[in-house]
């Protein structure tokens, strides 16, 4: 167990080190694409906390991603830049708060109700931004000026530079990975795993499962907000699609594709998913057909995701809770 | 709001609600009986509308297109159950959601390949293209009344089929205990296939009769799907009666949300936020009864 943990940390360190070299070799398109993968990896890891760890199948996780993104857009004054040091924590807090409010309603739901109600709440938010002028309507908002990350007069990172954005995404990716790992290994994380295995039993053991699930929902929402903030920062634009259910479905797919409940799985899933999308878009105008077919086949034939496939080929087995 | 306008809004709300019921009843039946959550259900609303549009253009008559489109929808439903859905019965809901989410992408793209991405419109059939005068200046279109009537007939037929026929008996029994029904010599696999195809046909039929009064457009199924989720959650999963009541409630709330003016402390709430009224209704019902109006206790 302990050996595993150290090996995992070593792998992460090596991965981050290798990824740190990307901007030295790749052109702008690929650096931005790699940053996008890292952002999606953060997003997928946050959903995995619900899906894989606690067994809460949220079909509206894009709501919190979008909340983080819209928070940056709304915190940026017109023709001026926001400060990274205030806008980032505020965006994450906004996502966390939204997750808390929605969580109060949805967390006591079970199974299929949970799926439908999370979806309905996310769509409610989608229509709020789509129909009203709060967030620029269906066109969204352009963020003309990227946030400035100044400490006094010193500017450690220039967010107008795409490589710097990439490094920010990489740093936050590593941070989120480590944080979630710590959460999962903590007694709190063990309770979550216990809830997934048998919530009734955890309740009989005296755990107030509602509070644990709500806390988990808030952490996942806040983490999704980190991803959304980064996405808004990188693309310089937010629109209602960032809250939409297509994104909720896609991120769910990344988690399943990689392998639920493994943290490394969603990262792998995000990378493979984004690369597939890039490839399919190159092949045909009707690439959704290929993507859809791929999803159907994965859901039918690859229940443990790619991590499970790797483990099976390697002759081992992946730990499954469900 | 004077009485005639009120009456028109009630009629509109009921018509919209009944249309929703056709889609939502299939969703709730497929879940209640087969234990399958099919998020691609809304796609069939779209497919129905496009089928009606293209067949009516080919055949030159809406009335000829309708039965053809229904037959085609049933066939698609049967094929889909056989190809994909039957593998999902024993799987976790998560994989059902994913797999059918993949199907949405496939159907949307097939629609794009077959019929293009343009918004189409289908003329109201000549026979029903009339209006009933309510006052000197206000009239109500006959076609909308016809939609409500047809939906009511279908709802009644559904009730009779489930409560009063042998097939309905097997369906109800299958929802309770699949294995027991199987060992009593009923081909439950066949029953499931019929239920699934019927659900698909209902959604598709709703799309067909809605086509002349709404734009036949890409993505039209997605909005309906989400609203139907709300309907099913409010009514209680698996309850057809609940779906009917919730559909009507949502139809009326949504319709009146768009015409009523409501201000609270100087903040304009309605009709500005009318697209959110149904979700507020859902949240309210869930706080009161987490299992929905007619759902089994959680």
Mean of residue pLDDT values of chain A: 88
Helix content of chain A: over 70%
Structural class of chain A: mainly alpha
Tell me what portion of residues of chain B adopts beta-strand conformation: under 5%
Structural class per helix/strand content of chain B?
Answer: mainly alpha
Specify the biggest β-sheet of chain A.
2 strands, antiparallel
Low-confidence regions of chain A: none
The percentage helix of chain B is: 55-70%
Q: Please, how many domains of chain B?
A: 1
Tell me the Rg of chain B in angstroms: 20 Å
> What would you report as the Rg of chain A, rounded to the nearest angstrom?
19 Å
**SSE arrangement of chain A, N to C:** HHHHHHEEEHHHHEHHHH
Runs of chain B in which pLDDT lies below 50 for 5 or more consecutive residues are: none
Q: Report the mean per-residue pLDDT of chain B as an integer.
A: 88
* SSE pattern of chain B: HHHHEEHHHHHHEEH
Oligomeric organization of the protein chains: heterodimer
Number of domains of chain A: 1
Task: Provide an overview of this structure.
The complex is a heterodimer of chains A (322) and B (298). Chain A has 322 residues and is mainly α. Chain A has one domain. Helices cover 73% and strands 3% of the residues of chain A. Chain A contains 14 helices and four strands. Chain A has helices at residues 2-20, 22-25, 28-54, 62-75, 84-106, 111-131, 162-185, 187-197, 199-204, 209-235, 245-258, 264-283, 287-301, 305-313; strands at residues 141-142, 149-151, 154-157, 237-238. In chain A, strands 1-4 form a two-stranded antiparallel ribbon. Chain A has a two-stranded antiparallel sheet with strand order 2-3. Chain B contains eleven helices and four strands; from the N terminus they run H-H-H-H-E-E-H-H-H-H-H-H-E-E-H. In chain B, the strands form two sheets. Chain B has a two-stranded antiparallel ribbon with strand order 1-2. A two-stranded antiparallel sheet of chain B has the order 3-4. Chain B has helices at 3-34, 41-59, 62-83, 93-115, 142-164, 166-176, 178-183, 188-210, 220-235, 240-259, 277-288, and strands at residues 131-133, 139-141, 262-264, 267-270. The mean pLDDT of chain B is 88. Helices cover 69% and strands 4% of the residues of chain B. Chain B has one domain (7-218). Chain B starts with a helix and ends in a 10-residue tail after the last helix. Chains A and B meet through helix 6, helix 11 and helix 13 of A and helix 4, helix 9 and helix 11 of B.
């Amino acid at each position: 167990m302990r050996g595993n943990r150290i090996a995992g940390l070593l792998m992460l360190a090596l991965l981050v080190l290798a990824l740190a070299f990307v901007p030295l070799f790749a052109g702008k398109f690929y650096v931005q694409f790699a940053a996008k993968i890292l952002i999606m990896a953060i997003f997928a890891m946050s959903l995995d906390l619900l899906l894989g760890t606690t067994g809460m199948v949220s079909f509206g996780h894009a709501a919190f991603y979008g909340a983080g993104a819209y928070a940056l857009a709304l915190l940026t004054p017109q023709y001026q830049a926001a400060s990274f040091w205030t806008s980032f924590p505020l965006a994450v807090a906004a996502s966390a708060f939204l997750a808390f409010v929605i969580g109060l309603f949805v967390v006591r739901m079970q199974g299929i109700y949970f799926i439908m109600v999370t979806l309905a709440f996310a769509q409610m938010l989608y229509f709020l931004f789509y129909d009203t002028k709060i967030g620029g309507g269906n066109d969204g908002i352009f963020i003309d000026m990227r946030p400035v990350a100044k400490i006094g007069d010193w500017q450690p990172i220039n967010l107008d530079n795409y490589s710097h954005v990439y490094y920010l995404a990489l740093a936050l990716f590593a941070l989120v990975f480590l944080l979630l790992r710590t959460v999962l290994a903590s007694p709190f994380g063990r309770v979550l795993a216990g809830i997934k295995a048998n919530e009734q039993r955890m309740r009989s053991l005296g755990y107030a499962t509602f509070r644990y699930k709500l806390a988990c929902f808030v952490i996942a929402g806040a983490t999704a907000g980190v991803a959304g903030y980064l996405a808004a920062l990188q693309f310089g634009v937010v629109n209602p699609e960032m809250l939409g259910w297509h994104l909720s479905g896609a991120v769910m797919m990344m988690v399943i594709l990689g392998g639920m409940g493994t943290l490394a799985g969603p990262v792998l899933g995000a990378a493979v998913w984004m690369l597939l999308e890039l490839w399919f878009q190159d092949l045909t105008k009707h690439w959704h057909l290929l993507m859809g077919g791929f999803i159907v086949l994965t859901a039918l034939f690859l229940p443990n995701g790619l991590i499970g496939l790797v483990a099976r080929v390697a002759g081992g087995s992946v730990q499954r809770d469900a | 709001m004077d009485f005639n306008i009120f009456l028109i809004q009630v009629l509109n709300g009921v018509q919209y609600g009944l249309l929703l019921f056709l889609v939502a009843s299939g969703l709730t039946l497929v879940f209640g009986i087969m234990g399958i959550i099919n998020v691609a259900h809304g796609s069939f609303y779209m497919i129905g509308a496009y089928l009606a549009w293209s067949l009516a253009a080919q055949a030159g008559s809406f009335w000829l297109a309708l039965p053809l489109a229904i037959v085609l929808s049933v066939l698609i439903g049967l094929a889909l159950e056989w190809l994909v859905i039957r593998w999902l019965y024993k799987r976790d809901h998560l994989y059902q959601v994913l797999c059918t989410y993949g199907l949405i992408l496939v159907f949307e793209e097939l629609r794009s390949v077959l019929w293009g991405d343009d918004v189409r419109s289908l003329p109201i059939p000549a026979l029903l293209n009339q209006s009933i005068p309510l006052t000197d200046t206000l009239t109500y279109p006959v076609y909308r009344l016809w939609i409500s009537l047809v939906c009511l007939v279908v709802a009644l037929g559904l009730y009779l089929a489930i409560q009063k026929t042998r097939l309905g008996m097997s369906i109800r029994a299958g929802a309770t205990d699949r294995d027991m029904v199987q060992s009593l010599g009923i081909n439950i696999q066949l029953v499931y296939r019929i239920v699934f195809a019927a659900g698909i046909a209902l959604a598709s039929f709703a799309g067909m009769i809605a086509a002349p009064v709404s734009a036949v457009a890409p993505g039209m199924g997605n909005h309906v799907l989400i609203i139907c989720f709300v309907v099913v959650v409010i009514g209680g999963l698996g309850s057809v009666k609940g779906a009917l009541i919730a559909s009507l409630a949502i139809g009326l709330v949504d319709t009146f949300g768009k015409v009523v003016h409501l201000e609270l402390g100087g903040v304009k709430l309605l009709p500005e936020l009318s697209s959110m009224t149904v979700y507020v209704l859902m949240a309210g019902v869930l706080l009161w009864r987490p299992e929905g109006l007619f759902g089994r206790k959680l």
